[in-house]
């Protein structure tokens, strides 16, 4: 009910805390189609599954294809403290990294160490993110009901989408976080 009242005020931007049901999804999508910038959250594992989630909530394909410009997802990883120590990747870590990028077997990584400033080797947090921008080709797929999680994932890979795990691996290799932290935070994505 509050969302309908907000729309009567003719705002330029609408921030919806979370889309949990069909009614909220419908109002958000219709607001986007009528020229409002709508920012919201959905509880999904990644950016790609957000589109499937909206479809599962009952949003029609023609509305999905018209209303969404981009979908982003993020997870926070702990940042390594300056006391970090250099190390080599284990075989498991190397094989995981190879799934997402070309990497030298001897590439140096860092492990948490711990010092009086941090205690456990970490200090602060950093976002690992992914952003999926909808193209005209993808909108056609949605409009023609040619999407499921596999087809969305395949399309994303073919169009140079950088998944959250790959973004996290870049942060591992530049010394921002550790492999252990990445695996701990993104176990369901790996």
UniProtKB/TrEMBL annotation:
* Keyword Repeat tagged: no
Q: Which InterPro entries match?
A: P-loop_NTPase, T2SS/T4SS_dom
Gene Ontology molecular-function annotations: ATP binding; ATP hydrolysis activity
- GO CC list: plasma membrane
Q: Which UniProt keywords apply?
A: ATP-binding, Nucleotide-binding
Q: Start and end of every Bacterial type II secretion system protein E domain?
A: 7-21
Q: Extract the Gene3D superfamilies matched here.
A: P-loop containing nucleotide triphosphate hydrolases
Superkingdom of source = Bacteria
- Family membership: Belongs to the GSP E family.
- According to UniProt, the name of this protein is Type II traffic warden ATPase
